[in-house]
Amino acid sequence: MVPVKPWALLERVETDYAGRFKLVKIDSDQEQQLAGAFGIRSIPTCVLLMNGQPVDGFTGAIPEGEIKAFLDKHLPAGEPEAEAAPEEDLPPASEEDALAALAQAAVAEPNNDDAQFAYIRALLLMDNLAQAKAVFEPHKTKALAVQRLASIALWLEILEGTPADEASLRAHIDANKRDFASRYALAQQAVRAGRWTDAMDELLEILMRDKSWEDERARRLFVAVLDIITPEPPKVAEGQTPPEDPIVVRYRRRLSSVVLS
Questions:
Q1: How far is residue 69's CA from residue 51's CA, in Å, rounded to a whole number?
Q2: How many CB atoms lie within 10 A of CB 53?
Q3: Cβ contact 123:131 at 8 Å
Q4: Considering the chain, what percentage of its residues have pLDDT values greater than 90?
Q5: Which of 97, 143, 178, 185 has its CB surrounded by the most CB atoms within 10 Å?
Q6: Domain-terminating residue out of 72, 94, 116
Q7: Residue 133 within a domain
Q8: Partners of 228 in the beta sheet?
Q9: Number of structural domains, the chain?
Q10: 3-state class of 58 per DSSP?
Q11: Mean predicted confidence (pLDDT) in 27-46
Q12: Structural contact between residues 156 and 185, judged by C-beta atoms closer than 8 angstroms
């Protein structure tokens, strides 16, 4: 009997499990940085992601029975397949399901910058800094050329920085309205706390007084915050325009007004 190749065996198990997990193949020679982020040391290696997080794995070819035992240890029990409901009647995905879907998209398309941004953004919004850093690592060199990845890099830099005393910063600003370093530090504090409009309001105070301060540092952080808070557009019928977030629209206009004035 000719032995079944590991990938073909996994595909067969995926079919048997009827949607209980999604199989994604990564070429570790082509995606060495991604393989490093997941701790791949030899092939074949399988990593199981649940809710966007690696939870278990195995290395080497193992029998079908052991693969199924491995999966059954983590996956919820299968249920009889129900008739598909119309898309508009489906309940909204949970936060965990949404993160898992973003993780699958990021792993399946390692060169898709938007997929990487969406997954890392979701991880950071859920305060999973360590996993976000690991996922970003293979892509950080792109931050010089890809705006949304530059926004992630700036966000990570702020989250890893040392918080300052807000009362002291405000006292400096009260004494000198042009203390842009204190204003910028205050905006960073707001970003750490997820107070996005507070951060942009403080950055606007800098931009209204000096648009080019420190090589447009305030503008770059403002744009990063807009990237972070801009939600993914909802699905709409063909020919329709998805609605925009009113806060994003308002602050985008305020930035344009200040920069172009």
A1: 20
A2: 14
A3: yes
A4: 54
A5: 185
A6: 72
A7: no
A8: none
A9: 2
A10: strand
A11: 70
A12: no
Instruction: Give the separation between CA 2 and CA 59, rounded to whole angstroms.
Output: 21
pTM of the model: 0.67
Convert the pLDDT of each residue in 58-111 to its tens digit: 777 778 888 888 888 887 766 544 444 444 444 555 778 888 889 999 999 999
Q: Which residue has the higher pLDDT, 187 or 41?
A: 187
CATH number of the CATH domain containing 33:
3.40.30.10
| CA 165 to each of CA 23, 47, 182, 198, 228: distance values in angstroms, whole numbers, following the listed order | 48, 42, 10, 16, 24
88-102: burial string, b at 16+ Cβ within 10 Å, e else:
eeeeeeeeeebbbbb
What are the backbone dihedrals phi and psi of residue 165, each rounded to the nearest 5 degrees, phi first? -85, 115
**Residues 201-211, mean pLDDT to the nearest whole number:** 96
Beta-carbon count within 10 A of 209 CB: 14
Give the pLDDT of residue 238. 79
CATH number at residue 190: 1.25.40.10
Looking at 47, 72, 97, the residue that finishes a domain is: 72
Task: Please report the pLDDT score of residue 18 as a whole number.
Answer: 79
Give a yes or no: residue 108 inside a domain: no
Range of the domain at 39: 6-72
